[in-house]
Design a protein that fits this description.
The chain has 264 residues and is of the alpha+beta class. The protein is built from eight helices and twelve strands.
């Protein structure tokens, strides 16, 4: 994609996926509150700010208002998902001053489904793909994530299970299997009525890396997206994933940093 197209796609992403965000769980609530769009959810769901329209005169008060809102709800933590084109230019400094702690940055990337769906999908030797449809499969996915990323995230387990049960048409979860052993896992989440599907959780256990499995899972999900008429795939890419995705044709829209606020 050239620069002009990337700017247009970023504007569309902001409008559809951030300002026009949809809830990511049946029990979640997405609402416009003043100059922000936020999601709140009970239990293990994701709480946070998805979009904002702030300036130097309004930013500090709006940050304080969101801290008060989530604190009053008893949320142990929430995320302000900051993008490098958000205003004001010093919003990151203001969030830190309010007690938010940044997590590692990720690169917001998009690719055209029509092109990505043409990638070869022949599995490496010894690998087969398995579609996840039930709790046992989700547990295998979580085992892979623990092996690949070294962390356990029960919130993701509950979110994926919830989508498989309540809106299975909007999620696709796939495992790469070496015999009976899961060695890589990834998912795609769809927001109806938008041009984008998100690729999430792509991870391979260390001893199986470098064999093209990550590429295979991207190509597989791109074909599923093409069948559903989706125009773009979106990824919040780690430093490890970014060069692979660039080689596959993804373009960079910017950088996003999760800013976390905690009651601790």
């Amino acid at each position: 994609m050239d620069l002009d197209e990337l700017v247009k796609v970023r504007a569309r992403y902001d409008a559809e996926m951030r300002e026009g965000a949809q809830q990511d769980a049946a029990q979640a609530r997405v609402e416009r509150a003043g100059a922000v769009v936020r999601q709140s959810v009970p239990g293990l769901g994701w709480n946070g700010v998805l979009w904002s329209d702030l300036d130097e005169g309004t930013a500090d008060a709006e940050i304080a208002a969101q801290v008060a809102f989530f604190a009053d709800r008893g949320c142990p933590e929430f995320e302000w998902k900051l993008y490098d084109h958000d205003r004001p230019a010093d919003l990151a400094d203001r969030l830190r001053a309010a007690g938010f702690v940044p997590e590692p940055p990720e690169t917001l990337m998009v690719g055209r489904v029509a092109e990505l769906a043409q990638l070869p999908v022949e599995p490496p030797e010894g690998i087969t793909l398995r579609t996840v449809t039930d709790e046992a499969g989700v547990d295998l996915m979580m085992d892979v994530h623990t092996g690949a990323f070294g962390t356990e995230r029960p919130r993701i387990r509950e979110s994926v299970l919830g989508m498989l049960r309540s809106e299975p048409e909007n999620i696709a979860v796939v495992l790469a299997m070496a015999g009976d052993t899961p060695v890589s896992a990834a998912r795609m989440e769809i927001r109806p009525g938008t041009a984008f599907a998100g690729l999430w959780g792509g991870g391979t256990i260390p001893q199986w890396r470098g064999r093209g499995i990550y590429r295979l899972l991207v190509a597989h999900r791109a074909r599923l997206a093409a069948e559903r008429g989706i125009e773009y795939l979106q990824v919040d890419a780690s430093d490890d994933s970014r060069p692979i995705l660039e080689r596959l044709g993804f373009g960079v829209l910017g950088v996003t940093v999760p800013y976390m606020w905690s009651q601790d």
